[in-house]
Amino acid sequence: MRLHFSFPLVCLLALYIRSFSAFYLPGLAPVSFCDKKEKADEDCQTDIQLFVNRLDSVESVLPYEYDVFDFCKDDKELRPSENLGQVLFGERIESSPYKQDNTIKWASRWDYILVSMPHTNIQWFSIMNSLVIVLFLSGMVAMIMLRTLHKDIARYNQVDQEDAQEESGWKQVHGDVFRPPRKGMLLSVFLGQGTQIFIMTFITLFLACLGFLSPANRGALMTCAVVLWVLLGTPAGYVSARLYKTFGGEKWKTNVLLTALLCPGIVFADFFLMNLILWGEGSSAAIPFGTLVAILALWFGISVPLTFVGAYFGFKKPAIEQPVRTNQIPRQIPEQSFFTKPIPGIVMGGILPFGCIFIQLFFILNSIWSHQMYYMFGFLFLVFIILLITCSEATILLCYFHLCAEDYHWWWRSFLTSGFTAVYLFIYAVHYFFSKLQIIGMASTILYFGYTMIMVLIFFLFTGTIGFFACFWFVNKIYSVVKVD
């Protein structure tokens, strides 16, 4: 009897065509196996070779090669080629001296892994929890848009402008609301990098949902993310340059250099320090020197030039036109209540987005640190969309409240409000370390928090960018429909 190794996406035309040829898109390429007596007539394999990747421990985040112990060595050792994602995760693929149990049915080969996976009911609970938060925020935003904001615009557009000027509210700061922010260079750089991360994440998760980045194809997810990040330097440079020009900046060379080097440089420096620890510990997760050189070549040879190309087109474009003029003299901001001050608003703004993701975050941390297989990309993509909506709506709500309090410093606040979700991510990671893991040893602890800081920085740029552009759209929208003398 012949078996065909393939993923569960089967062409439906097979039901109608007796003899057909097809090609395989998602996951891994199929391999045909048959009995030894059929070997002479068929192009198939008779033995199922078992490969191993690494040795893990619940007390350490340091993986080691499978044959680090003498009793696991294979006399006829084979080392198939590894992709970039496998190298970054420390998976050194080797052949095993043992053979796979052929008595296990092919349809049941994943059972031993799926038994340890969380039940989908928990996932649906997570989705329902997130949807409740989204519905709450959507109701608040709808109330503001359809009732409060509509009444404000109708009142501000009255013929009797003298009475309207006596009113307090968001219209009174129309001459200052588009005043360029302080440290606009840094904000534009963060937004350019955040745009790059957002597009990379969206495409990666979308491909994972379609099955192209299957858990069976180890390292494919990381490889795809790295390649996409390298190729998306153009939108990062364009967004950063266009916004920096809108802020009135003129140091375009500094802007494009910071966009190309600042945040990636921080990530690479952290990653390199972690790699030094792995080298010192003799772990298989230590990246070879040649791979580090290849990553640097991708960064400086492809990503940086593409960032320059994007920045060139961004600076060639005119600055984004604002719907109202900016006054020469800044308006004095009145005394703010506790809840409309910057820090309390920023702290509160990250709570609801984090509430949408914390259950899914638990499974992701389990897959990274507790050696569990993650395969629920459909749920993850849905939570990703919910996170976008939640960050946008929470930031718009707080932005409206601050403008009504006549505080027009919304540029940085919109970025930090949703970006503060990353702080809650870090707090949860600390809680996860002490409550769920059994890690011992200084090296493993440093590695855990070192890699966590990379995750926090990426998440900070990602969520902050979502909040900023949502607020930017909202502010432009409301001030474009109100009459200003």
Automatic annotation (TrEMBL):
Gene Ontology cellular-component annotations: membrane
Signal peptide: 1-22
InterPro entries found in the cross-reference section: EMP70, MFS_trans_sf
Entry coiled-coil feature ranges: none
Topology versus the membrane: Multi-pass membrane protein
Keywords from the UniProt entry: Membrane, Signal, Transmembrane, Transmembrane helix
GO biological-process terms attached to the record: protein localization to membrane
Keyword Signal: yes
Main localization, broad class: membrane
Parts of the chain that traverse the membrane: 124-146, 189-213, 219-244, 256-279, 285-315, 346-369, 375-403, 415-434, 446-475
Subcellular location: Membrane
Top-rank lineage group of the source organism: Eukaryota
Family: Belongs to the nonaspanin (TM9SF) (TC 9.A.2) family.
Protein name: Transmembrane 9 superfamily member
Native species: Oreochromis niloticus (Nile tilapia)
Lineage per the UniProt record: Eukaryota, Metazoa, Chordata, Craniata, Vertebrata
Gene designation: tm9sf5
